[in-house]
Specification:
The protein is built from 3 helices and 5 strands. The model has no long low-confidence stretch (mean pLDDT 90). It starts with 16 loop residues before the first helix and ends with a strand. It has a single domain, classed as Translation Initiation Factor Eif1 (2-Layer Sandwich), CATH 3.30.780.10. It is of the alpha+beta class. It binds zinc ion. Zinc ion binds next to loops.
């Protein structure tokens, strides 16, 4: 008897739920917002917490800007880096189609 996935109802060998879940987890959102004193900051959400510190370090170095990791949830960079961040994140091995520039 073939195992059937309880989520999609397909036989396990055809099921892609695990893959979809993984991709959903790694969906990265990049957007800017106004911080105090009318300064623009760039927020990067969705970097896995194992990688977020090293990703933040690399982004700060490559963009030559200040920034911090907030609550292991998102990276905050000083200034508007929306145009450059995507290429840098792809360079770290994330899939371009999973990066959403808002
Ligand atoms: Zn499934």
């Amino acid at each position: 008897m073939t195992d059937i996935c309880s989520k999609c109802g397909l036989p396990k060998e055809l099921c892609v739920c695990d893959v979809l879940e993984k991709e959903a987890e790694n969906l990265i959102k990049v957007y800017t917002k106004k911080a105090r004193f009318n300064k623009i900051i760039t927020i990067i959400e969705g970097v896995p917490s194992d990688d977020i510190e090293s990703a933040a370090r690399e982004l700060k170095r490559k963009l030559a800007c200040g920034g911090t990791v907030k609550d292991d949830q998102f990276i905050e960079l000083q200034g508007n880096h929306k145009n450059k961040v995507k290429g840098l994140i792809v360079g770290m091995g994330y899939k371009e189609s999973n990066i959403d520039i808002i």
